[in-house]
Specification:
- This protein is mainly alpha-helical.
- The protein has a domain at about 25-75.
- The protein is built from two helices and no strands.
- The chain has helices at about 5-45, 50-80.
- It starts with a helix and ends in a 6-residue tail after the last helix.
- The model has no long low-confidence stretch (mean pLDDT about 95).
């Protein structure tokens, strides 16, 4: 086998694993953010508006993580630094 084929195949597998991990991490983080917000609201209902506001801020920050990972993955796919 040619080295280019091996590097391209390894890159494709690695990108798939990276994107799957980013998606799984994002889903777990969404669940934790929402669960902890609901827990906080149940403990102190008068803090609902503050907790929901904070939930959306943290959810927005957390949501940027998969997009950053996707940018790196696309960089490996289209401008592979390992192919010289």
């Amino acid at each position: 086998m040619d080295a280019t084929v091996i590097i391209t195949a390894a890159t494709a597998i690695s990108v798939g694993i990276i994107l799957a991990a980013a998606g799984l991490g994002s889903a777990i983080a969404w669940g934790l953010i929402c669960a902890k917000t609901m827990e906080g609201i149940s403990r102190q209902p008068e803090m609902r508006s503050t907790l929901v506001f904070n939930m959306f801020i943290f959810a927005g920050l957390m949501e940027s993580f998969p997009f950053i990972i996707m940018a790196f993955a696309l960089w490996f796919v289209f401008a592979n630094p390992f192919l010289g």
